[in-house]
Write a structure and sequence with these properties.
With 231 residues, this protein is mostly beta strands. The chain contains one helix and 18 strands.
């Protein structure tokens, strides 16, 4: 185990953890550029690499079970990441505000893309969602740079605002005619005021959504005044 605060103030650009380490409690300084994690690690801790602004290279090996809340939030120089098949869920805000992130490699076995997982990832133009994913949660891609996205038939639930303010988004293909839009609660001064199921609010005006006729997605597009085309 690597204990609390071991690396907090260390201006070390590269860290390679040896196999056999199962828990890392420490956070890391903003000078970290490259990190290789061991396959014996149980999980990547919540907010563990948050604000590591210089971080460019991360190796997450097969064997790691989960990446917890906000683990790589605001790693603004991170350009590419590969998630191993042993990780089943991208938790809330894991890559939020990773503004340089261009490529995300999701492995088969992924089940859930979490709430605000890729919020404000402005350089993320596309993402291949494997056909093992079942749920895309609220605000998952809010404000991202997505231009096109294909949602496989395995996805049964999409959270409201999943694609909110995706200003570059021009094409979405939804292959499950029975996919449901999960309602999201909106608040005023901390008081719940109601729910909404808006999916494509503030998106590109030229957005075209492809899907099955008479589906929930077709009705959603009609309600949001988004052009829908059946396939």
């Amino acid at each position: 185990m690597v204990d609390h605060r071991v690396f907090d103030m260390c201006k070390v650009p590269t860290i390679i953890f040896e196999e056999g380490i199962y828990d890392i409690k420490s956070g890391f300084s903003s000078s970290l550029v490259s990190v290789t994690l061991p396959s014996t690690l149980d999980y990547v801790g919540g907010y563990q690499f948050k604000n590591c602004y210089a971080l460019k290279n991360v190796v997450i090996p097969e064997g790691i079970d989960s990446i917890q809340v906000g683990a790589f939030e605001s790693c603004s120089k991170l350009k590419e990441i590969t998630i191993p098949s042993t990780v089943k869920e991208i938790s809330t805000g894991v890559f939020a505000y990773c503004t340089s992130l261009e490529k995300v490699n999701l492995s088969n076995g992924m089940k859930t893309i979490g709430e605000k997982a890729f919020v404000q990832c402005k350089n993320l133009k596309s993402i291949d969602i494997p056909d093992t994913v079942e749920t895309i949660k609220f605000n998952a891609f809010q404000g991202s740079g997505l231009v096109s996205v294909e949602i496989p038939a395995s996805v049964t639930k999409i959270g409201a605002s999943a694609f909110l303010a995706c200003e570059s988004l021009k094409e979405v293909k939804v292959h499950n005619s029975d996919v449901t839009i999960e309602p999201q609660t909106y608040e005023s001064n901390g008081v719940a005021m109601g729910t909404h199921t808006t999916l494509f609010g503030q998106c590109n005006k030229d957005l075209v959504v492809y899907g099955k006729p008479a589906s929930v997605i077709a009705r959603t597009c009609a309600e949001e005044n988004v052009y829908f085309k059946a396939f």
